[in-house]
Each structure stands twice: as C-alpha cells, then as structure tokens.
Amino acid sequence: MKPIYFKALGFASAIPDNYFFHDCGYVKSLIDQTRKLLSEIGQPSDNDFLMRCNISPSRLSLGNGGFHLHTLNFPTTGSRTSWIYYNPLANLSLDIHNRAHEETHAACRLGLKEQLIEKIAQEDIARKQVLRGLAEEDFCDQAGLWVIKTKQIEPNPGIFISYNDRIQLAVDRQVRYQEAQKNRGAIS
Ligand SMILES: [Zn+2]
After folding, report:
1. DSSP, res 160
2. Domain segments of the chain: what residues?
3. More confident of the two residues 156 and 185
4. What is the pLDDT of residue 175?
5. Which range has the worst mean pLDDT, 82-86, 103-107, 159-163, 171-175?
6. Do residues 14 and 110 lie in contact, with contact meaning Cβ atoms separated by under 8 Å?
7. Which has the closest alpha carbon to 136: 126, 127, 144?
8. How far is the CA of 65 from the centre of ligand 1 (A)?
9. How far is CA 33 from the centre of its chain?
10. How many angstroms separate the alpha carbon of residue 43 from the centre of ligand 1?
11. Cα 166 to ligand 1 centroid, rounded to whole Å
12. Does 144 score more than 90 pLDDT?
C-alpha cells in the first residue's frame, strides 16, 4: 500500500501499489488534456473513440468544470489509474467544489468511497446510509458541499444545482451561443 492525499477534500488514505492517481491540476482545455493523456498511454483519442468510452467531446469542450479519466491497466492484474484535471474557476466556492467533485470520483474508483463516507458522516449513521445510496455524481456533489461547509466558504448559489442540471444548462447555453453565431453570420 502507498499513501494518497486529496488536496481539496483534505482526505488522506492509502491505495494498493498498483493503483495510480494523478492530479494534473488546472488546465485550459479539458478536451485537449483528455486527448493528450490518452495519446500518452497509447490509446486512440478521436471523437468516435471518446464517445465509445462514454466521454462527450462537445460537453468536455464547454470549458467550465473538471474531468476524471479512469483506466484499467494492462496486463489485467487489477491495476488502475485515475487522472483528474479542472478548469480554473474565479469563484472560490465553485473552484473548490469542482476540484472536490473530481477528487471524489477518483476516491470512489480507487476503492476509497466507504472511507470517505466515514470521514464525511462521522458518527451519523443515517447520513452514512443516505450517502451510500447516492449515484456517484450525486455523491461527488455532496462531498463538494461538505468541503465548502467544513471550510466555512460562502457558497455560490450555482453550487446547489445538481450535476445533471448543471450539465444541461451548460449544453443549452452552448447551443444558444452557436445559434447566435450562426444568425450573426447570416445577417452579415
Ligand atoms: Zn462528475
């Protein structure tokens, strides 16, 4: 086993020696970083491949969030790797929530979900049960909110929008923007 530390969560633990975690920090483009990492490990990085991996290139291009990339390593001895990276967000609460959200994805995939639940819920058995029952995206959001509360950071109202709604709002915004660009082109 070897030590692991999640900076935004303030969560220290240990993972097996053949598990790997890389916090790549702030990046300008989530899609460029994803393609770069896939190329580095000898994987295709074109849009078709991304979509087969359930990664949406258009969503990753929106540029206002973070991403967690996870692979199982060959040969298949249970080895796995998590990378996280995120856009810099000007608002402190949105920034730390974003980072904690991605760290939580990695913690879940590296076998640390139950330990993180214990850390968040402490002795509160009912809360533990609720956290255990959440889908991963919702749990990541809850972990983000827990960090905001623990650090006594004033939450930006946007933080209370659930993950799926946030993504839909961002997609809607992008579509409206593209339509406006198209209309502008048609007028000029
Ligand atoms: Zn997520």
Report:
1. G
2. 2-187
3. 156
4. 82
5. 171-175
6. no
7. 144
8. 9
9. 13
10. 22
11. 11
12. yes
Ligand 1 centroid, distance to 183 Cα (angstroms)? 33
Q: How far is the CA of 184 from the centre of ligand 1 (A)?
A: 34
The reported pLDDT for the residue numbered 186 is: 66
Q: Which residues contact 57 (CB under 8 A, 6 or more apart)?
A: 31, 47, 50, 51
Dist. CA 68 → ligand 1 center (Å) = 7
Measured CA to CA in angstroms, residue 159 lies from 87, 114, 129 at distances of: 16, 24, 23
Residue 41 C-alpha to ligand 1 middle, in angstroms? 22
pTM recorded for the entire structure: 0.90
Tens-place pLDDT, residues 73-82: 887 789 999 9
CB atoms within 10 A of CB 7: 12
Q: Which of 143, 149, 147, 170 is nearest to 158 (CA)?
A: 170
| pLDDT over threshold 60, residue 51 | yes
Q: Does residue 188 carry a pLDDT above 60?
A: no
Strand bridging mode 19-26 / 11-15: unpaired
d(CA 136, CA 73): 22
Look at residue 166 and tell me whether its pLDDT is greater than 90. no
54: CA distance to ligand 1 center in Å? Answer: 13
Q: Identify the pLDDT of residue 80.
A: 96
* CA-based nearest residue to 96, from 6, 15, 163, 16: 6
